[in-house]
Amino acid sequence: MTPHMTTRRAAALAAVAAMVVVGVQSGAATAAPGNARDGASVTRTPGASGARTAIDPNTASERTAAIKSAQSDASSTADAIGLGSQEKLIVRDVIKDADGTVHTRYERTYAGLRVLGGDLVTHTTGSGKLKSVTKANTARITVPSTTPEVRTAAGARKVIWAGSGKPVLAFETVRTGVQKDGTPSRRHVITDAATGRTLHSYEAIETGVGNSQYSGKVTLSTTASGSGFELTDGDRGGHKTYDLNQGESGTGALVTDDDDTWGDGTGGDRQTAAVDAHYGAAMTWDFYKSALGRSGIAGDGKAAYSRVHYGNAYVNAFWDDSCFCMTYGDGADNKSALTSLDVAGHEMSHGLTAATANLDYAGESGGLNEATSDILGTSVEFFADSSSDAGDYLIGEKIDINGDGTPLRYMDKPSKDGGSADYWSAGVGDLDVHYSSGVANHFFYLLSEGSGPKTINGVDYDSPTADGSTVTGIGRDKAVQIWYKALSAYMTSSTDYAAARTATEKAATDLYGAGSPELAAVDAAWSGVNVK
Fold first, then answer.
1. Which cofactors is this protein said to need (predicted)?
2. Which of 336, 440, 511, 532 is deepest in the core (most CB within 10 A)?
3. Is 347 a catalytic residue?
């Protein structure tokens, strides 16, 4: 039952609805593929695809104003949706659909304590009428006492844990260190404040891998500085690329050049990795803007930054939300930097996920988090349309970490990597997130291309289904629109595969209609991966 909306809240939401914030999502959601470019980058007009009308880069102030407006009336919203007297809402984001529907994303506090797993999204009409609320946890947030019964280590913060089941008073401790492959570790551990029992843990450093450093000859956006140039992209929020010089902390040195001609296309030249990282960041920014109507990772027109030459023989890349940055290793031979388009797109998309649904990096939600980065990373690769690295549904196909020329992951049949899940099962959430992601990767491939054998950009695929059904794809452009809409408007931190199906069904309905072939395809693709 929808609670009665107060007059004040309705007026406030109507005011918010009048603003175009992150981007307008239209029912005619199709994104144009990247233009052929003879080895050079092409400037694209935002919104040229007709998929979504992108906001101007200078309209980030409208987004800020919408968030401020929603926050000023957050207490009325809390009352309207039936929250308790000790609960407060903190606005994280506001987006508006073409039909005027406004989706406002909130974090929650209880008695001044952060509620982990308490995030929610309100969905209102343009006039301010509450349509529905999506909650990470539907349980009522209340605890008998906010006084702990056990002691904990210095530096732990007191929180309410609502990630699963009945909310309890808890401690959150962050343990730093190094993972087995040399990736930094910042593990969050949640313990019960009454018993000391570990309730949950997750890794905050989110990793991914891709192919080698070559994208052919590219055009870079750089900035003149003194008598030379620096890798600062003034066209895309001021994105900077730094050389860590094998360090593992800080930013290192901003990459500079005398004549604005960068690198030589080989791993023996230190600028080459920076070129690919800078170019990958630019293409990801352009893809977000053109296909998703999103201005930057957080939707606020501000850039992240990139760091190359991390550590010694480090064979990985990672996103760190605490620095809002991407970091790339040089590979086992220190000459094969992991700076390809799909890696850049993958890493920055971890940041996009953190800025939207903030999917917990563990269990089924962790698999959805990783899959989102694979989905958007491969979409960036298709968007860039590089003759040197054609778009495909293979992840890490040119690194050869396996030593036999095979990719790290296959979206058409994930189990081909030896560990990923093709279909959902009760134990899929127990897998490493890079393997549980297979279910969503497979769903996305089926939704985009359909089941059975086919050849795309010279790569052969043959995608099966769990029930032997035939799935007809709707095209990658529409599939991306549906996934992004679900991520930004309907998924929460605790979304699992069943909830992801619901979220994409709602997204397809919003974009294409309740009786649309696109919605039918979403249902068929989820059934094809055994998510009922």
1. Zn(2+)
2. 440
3. yes
